[in-house]
TrEMBL record:
A single GO molecular function term of this UniProt record: methyltransferase activity
The name this protein goes by in its record: Class I SAM-dependent methyltransferase
Residues annotated as signal peptide: none
A biological process from GO: methylation
Domain of life (superkingdom): Bacteria
Keywords: Methyltransferase, Transferase
A Pfam family recorded for this sequence: TylF
Transmembrane segments: none
Amino acid sequence: MDDIVVARLGRPPGRRHRIANELLARLGTRMRVSDPPYRWGYGNVESHMNVFHLASQTCAYGVPGDLVELGCATGESSVVIQSVLSAGGARDKRFHVYDSFSGLPEPADADASDGIYHKGDMVAPLERFEETFVRAGLAARPTIHVGWFDETVPAQLPDRISFAMIDCDLYSSTKLVLPHIYARMSPGAIAMFGVYYDPEVYAREGIRSTYASPGVKRATDEFFADKPEQVSVLYANEYSNGYFRKQ
Ligand SMILES: C[S@@+](CC[C@H](N)C(=O)[O-])C[C@H]1O[C@@H](n2cnc3c(N)ncnc32)[C@H](O)[C@@H]1O
């Protein structure tokens, strides 16, 4: 059977796939429509490799603490992090995810003057997060913290963190969560930024994406101005991730 992979039907496989496939069958063709199992939200193969390797390292070296993701949206990177935990058998660790599940808050001040994002951008309802786990065939689930970060952070953060995925796009959100994450990171813990775009390190030539999230780098660089650690850029095409390891 030959499959036509449709890049973005915008919804999980369901009625639309079935109707299209019934039509294709009636036409006598052997081709069928399917969504790629690896792509219906955010991130790409390279950014998921970064998530996998960094989260795995902290588990392999036994860095104390739990794993957290701030801005989990449809759960694409959450599935990778949960898989690392489940495969590694780190039974003493939990994974916590945080999101409004209503998309971004109203951009104010620096975010408003960047003019890139709007309230509700990237809205991903909780059901879609669940569907991503079902599609991945994962039985384990993280602890889900629904709400705006200023309601859930720091009250609902674990006391100690070994790996953090910080992926919230706005200056205000990054500025809000970073000090609380940093304060809870064990020595050797790693935090990864979903978008940390530094054109001087990685020009991303030929990439037409406007997915730059300049507020993330601004908030992060301000925070690290008086810290011993430095953020490094990780190549991941349009996502241009960053990371640091806590001393
Ligand atoms: C790029 S998406 C996360 C993508 C996800 N990490 C992945 O790789 O699949 C950014 C998410 O951050 C969330 N977010 C940003 N600022 C927030 C805030 N202040 N409170 C709650 N959620 C926020 C948005 O709702 C959105 O789902």
